[in-house]
Amino acid sequence: MSCMEKPRNFLNQLKDDGLILKKRYKTLIEIEEGNKVQREKGLYDMLEWLEEEQSDNIKQIWKCVFKEHLRNEYRTLRNLHQKLQSVCNANNRKLQKGMKRKSSQQEDEEGEKQHGTGSEASSSFNEPLLKVVCGELKAILVKEMFDEGGKGMHFIRG
């Protein structure tokens, strides 16, 4: 993203959404008129600052960055958005597939327990999906995705 040719509209949106200060905005706009190396460094520093200092607002930052008019103007944002969507869709398909597998396994286990053939010593840690509860937060850990280094947690509302 730091290699944008004309980042003015991108910066305008960040400023309008209150994600960067006016002083930083003005500095970056002035750099935009300067040379390419300075512009890229300025944008990179600003993005790094957003990552480090505004991490609590990451959801708001992504909403801002992926607004339709910015995706239409900046190919980089459009491509990034498409890649993230495809990864999310693939993860959701894996989760749904895993949940179906888990559901049928649970039915099998319940049938075994009713008939006295199941082993209560078998650990749920061997399952592909694990229910995780922390306070009021509930999630499902997809071990396969987690093992691959991706985000293996899918949060459940309610």
Automatic annotation (TrEMBL):
Q: Which Pfam families match?
A: HSR
Which segments show compositional bias classed as Basic residues?
94-103
Indicate the segments annotated as coiled coil, or none if absent: none
Give the signal peptide, or none.
Answer: none
Q: Where is this region: Disordered?
A: 91-123
Which stretches make up the HSR domain? 3-86
Q: What is this protein called?
A: HSR domain-containing protein
Q: What is the lineage of its organism?
A: Eukaryota, Metazoa, Chordata, Craniata, Vertebrata
